[in-house]
Amino acid sequence: MTSILTSRPELKAALDSVAEVAGYLWQKGWAERNGGNLTLNITEYVDEQMRAMPAICAPKAIGVTLPHLKGCYFYCKGTGKRMRDLARDPMCAGSIVRILDDCATYEIIADNPIVPTSEISSHLAIQDYMIECGSGYKATLHTHPIELVALSHSKEFLDSEHLTQVLWSMIPETLAFAPLGIGVVPYALPSSTELVEPTLKQIRRYDVVLWEKHGTVAVGPDMMEAFDQTDVLNKAANIYMTAKNFGFTAEGMTPEAVQEIRDVFKLPNQR
Ligand code: 13P
Ligand code: ZN
Q1: In whole angstroms, what is the distance from residue 208 CA to residue 206 CA?
Q2: Tens digit of pLDDT at every position of the chain (271 positions)
Q3: Cα radius of gyration rounded to whole Å, the chain
Q4: Which 3 state secondary structure label does DSSP give 185?
Q5: What 8-state DSSP symbol labels residue 54?
Q6: Element (H, E) at 227
Q7: CB-based contacts of 238: which residues, under 8 Å, 6+ apart?
Q8: Is 249 in contact with 46 (CB distance < 8 Å)?
Q9: Which of 119, 225, 251, 260 does the annotation list as catalytic?
Q10: CA 206 to ligand 2 center in whole angstroms
Q11: How far is the CA of 262 from the centre of ligand 1 (A)?
């Protein structure tokens, strides 16, 4: 069977990069079984032939109405599919969907009728926001980074401002590459539309969102950048944990040292 990627080198290159990230997620131990999911806005690569492609499944509800997604196309990881399989072949572990004119349903157009991730409502709501605010961002990434999820089991770290300050103070690069920090969303059933609004609220303000006792959601111009932001914040959590394992609590950089980095590198404090 011919893939939609055949003779579309730009689309293939974009999905090759997504596959590379999926491999990193597996190597890091953040993607057990089908853990984690991602979407990439691929509308810029869509040609007339793709627009004319018939659906290969009945329309499915997103769960929310997203006015800025009309006529957009996304690559989505399939529900129940493994990141380590996606790393080998994105079209065997995901599919390409078209958002219909009602902005509340989608249909799959290629390659196979692989049902998108159960977290599609949160991913697409964020995609809608990223278009609305003109960010140019194309990627959303949900994963299960071990140390950040572990921290979310402590009441102390369910406070977004406190968690952000602790992580920023672990190593200077955290602030430099995640200058908006991390926002916490209280526990809600995975895949429920209950997660959508609180996640949107936090992603408007923070670089990365931490779903309590579950995982993170990050955004970026491409999947590699979304991965990097998650990685930078999880590295800080890992340093905090390593100090604990040595038997002490990491002192952390002083608030003045953190502020100096913000000033010298002229870091943004809002999107
Ligand atoms: P999916 O397999 O449906 O993408 O779910 C994985 C997951 O991490 C749910 O939060
Ligand atoms: Zn998850």
Answers
A1: 6
A2: 799 999 999 999 999 999 999 999 999 999 999 999 999 999 999 999 999 999 999 999 999 999 999 999 999 999 999 999 999 999 999 999 999 999 999 999 999 999 999 999 999 999 999 999 999 999 999 999 999 999 999 999 999 999 999 999 999 999 999 999 999 999 999 999 999 999 999 999 999 999 999 999 999 999 999 999 999 999 999 999 999 999 999 999 999 999 999 999 999 999 9
A3: 19
A4: strand
A5: P
A6: helix 223-246
A7: 147
A8: no
A9: 119
A10: 19
A11: 35
Spatial separation of the C-alpha atoms in residues 264 and 249, rounded to whole Å? 28
Q: How far is CA 153 from the centre of its chain?
A: 21
- Gap from CA of 110 to ligand 2 centroid (Å): 24
The pTM for the full model equals: 0.98
Report the length, in residues, of the chain: 271
For this structure, is 173 an active site residue? no
Q: Ligand 2 being an ion, which residues bring their Cβ within 5 A of it? A: 215
Burial annotation 78-113 (CB, 10 A radius, 16+ → b, else e)? bbebbbbbbbeebbbbbbbbbbbeebbbbbbbbbee
Can you read off the two tokens belonging to residue 34? 């089908």
Structure tokens at 227: 């991965």
Residues in contact with ligand 1 (CB, 6 Å cut-off): 34-37, 77, 79-80, 117-119, 190-191
Which amino acid is it at 64? V
